[in-house]
Write a structure and sequence with these properties.
Blueprint: H1 3-10, H2 18-42, E1 51-52, H3 59-67, H4 72-84, H5 87-103, H6 118-144, E2 153-156, E3 165-168, H7 172-217
Antiparallel strand pairs: 1-3, 2-3
Helix pairs in contact: 2-4, 2-7, 4-6, 5-6, 6-7
Subunit structure: A connexon is composed of a hexamer of connexins.
Domain Connexin cysteine-rich: 133-200
Organism: Sula dactylatra (Masked booby)
């Protein structure tokens, strides 16, 4: 991936605010790069390094599946894909308008604050969807793993385990640090999205109010 591609995907190449550009920087540097460089290697052998104090065939696999129904890294990757997808609305709308206005010899406005109509609504919709998806994935993480933590020992009594056995998770402290980092960056992205959404709604509302006020004065 190139920076230009990610900028186009996020819709911030020409038609975004400074907050939108910060969102892209956070996603690329603090989420995507951390995932590629560090997180994948930490969870790479999580199944092989998951050990139970019993050698009953099938017990270890069943316990691992019970406590880790979805891999942290796969869910993290899915989250990155899903929260980036709504920005395609802006990309498609910009491409449509540029193609349409080429034939009319017109130009798109240079900043989002000067744009009314479809492009603004598409951008606002993408912000709402991104915020909603971030919240959904945070709730999903919390529900799947019983909180944002990685225990050192888990007790399992699932069949075919003959009794309650102790299972040990490898590198729990390191994994928990990265899990907290994931939660923190997700919360930061939610704050950025809500800030940009509030800013655009406020600016658009003020613009409409000033237009009506000027008309009344005239």
């Amino acid at each position: 991936m190139s920076w230009g591609f990610l900028s186009d995907l996020s819709g911030v190449n020409k038609y975004s605010t400074g907050i939108g550009r910060i969102w892209v920087a956070v996603v690329v540097m603090f989420r995507l790069l951390v995932y590629i460089v560090a997180a994948e290697s930490i969870w790479k052998y999580e199944h092989d390094e998951f050990e139970c104090n019993i050698k009953q065939p099938g017990c270890e696999n069943v316990c691992f599946d019970h406590f880790f129904p979805v891999s942290h890294t796969r869910l993290w990757a899915l989250q990155l894909i899903m929260v980036s997808t709504p920005s395609l609305l802006v990309v498609f709308h910009v491409a449509y308008r540029e193609n349409r206005e080429k034939h009319r010899n017109q130009k798109l406005c240079k900043s989002l604050g000067e744009i009314d109509g479809g492009l603004l609504y598409a951008y606002l919709t993408s912000l709402i969807l991104k915020t909603g998806l971030e919240i959904v994935f945070l709730v999903l993480f919390y529900k799947l793993y019983n909180g944002f933590k990685v225990p050192r020992i888990v007790k399992c009594d699932m069949r075919p385990c003959p009794n309650t056995v102790d299972c040990y998770i490898s590198k729990p402290t390191e994994k928990m640090i990265f899990l907290y980092f994931l939660v923190a960056t997700s919360c930061l992205c939610i704050v950025l999205n809500l800030s940009e959404l509030s800013y655009l709604i406020f600016k658009y509302s003020m613009k409409c109010y000033l237009k009506r006020y000027i008309k009344k004065r005239q």
